[in-house]
């Protein structure tokens, strides 16, 4: 249970945090209300945002026993490369909203943890500086209204040494995020979309009854993205191609047929269509539909090593984790982000061993059972 004490921040947060939720509380203590809402909020009534967690909590695992848990490994393969665990850092825009070191600190933490870092098109640090950190970097791509500029971004990512292109396919425009509208949210002057501009944009102009960030993306992103664009992208890059934001099995099959190396089963963390199916509930049908023709990853709501194991047991080859990294970064910079990934690795190793799995491959053989979801617990 919660002690009721004030959450610790900075170095103290990294030393005392025992779970990812501790960093959420620590970040809440240092972020402004409107930045906290920008990171934590969802679209509409936040039905899908809440449902992601509830759905994960309804997935119960059936552990095996007498399997020799003396040596448990979290090592896995993601997009053909070895990773220390089946986790990648999800793309999140504008890290410098929460810490001056922004994406550089988060990328260094991912490198130290041995997992890929996914840099957003809307990162607040240029892609070249992020890859210079030296870890495995994937580049998340939003299709822009200017197709030539879109392809220049892909070439920049290739030239910078990115190891994959992750095309987000569920954002014809930004979902209506009421917290941001009520806050009239706009970027502060020191935070920019560094891959797109070096100066202020419409994302910085606060106005009544709108989110300036939503206005900016509406003017920048193409709402005409179709499968023909996917085919064009597949032809133009030799990097592994991932489609992020797939929930329908039919779309997953078509993604594989279009040359995608992986799909991310995702509802954008509850930030796009409010009322969309929780990602974990969509996962089994997608896995069955693609029949191994591409990798299947999952994001939206992952908050523990047990959640990672749930996804693996339901057929995912790995997960993407977003908000917890931002909480760690806000609370304690690079050390906080690193501690988030360290905790996740420790929890996954613990969950694997206690479920009778000596490694990630064994997790796919676990049975699951549907159970009731109780109220959220604070520990």
Automatic annotation (TrEMBL):
Active site annotation, chain numbering: 268
Chain positions recorded as glyoxylate binding sites: 142, 177, 268, 271
Residue stretches making up the FMN hydroxy acid dehydrogenase domain: 12-373
Top-level lineage group: Bacteria
Entry keyword Flavoprotein: yes
Required cofactor(s): FMN
Residues annotated as binding FMN: 91-93, 120, 140, 168, 244, 266, 299-303, 322-323
Keywords carried by this UniProt record: Flavoprotein, FMN, Oxidoreductase
Database matches in InterPro entries: Aldolase_TIM, Alpha-hydoxy_acid_DH_FMN, FMN-dep_DH, FMN_HAD, FMN_hydac_DH_AS
SUPFAM superfamilies: FMN-linked oxidoreductases
Pfam families for this protein: FMN_dh (PF01070)
UniProt-recorded Gene Ontology molecular function terms: FMN binding; oxidoreductase activity, acting on CH-OH group of donors
PROSITE patterns in the cross-refs: FMN_HYDROXY_ACID_DH_1 (PS00557), FMN_HYDROXY_ACID_DH_2 (PS51349)
UniProt similarity note: Belongs to the FMN-dependent alpha-hydroxy acid dehydrogenase family.
UniProt cross-references to PANTHER family, sorted A to Z: 2-HYDROXYACID OXIDASE 1 (PTHR10578:SF107), S -2-HYDROXY-ACID OXIDASE-RELATED (PTHR10578)
Protein name: Hydroxymandelate oxidase
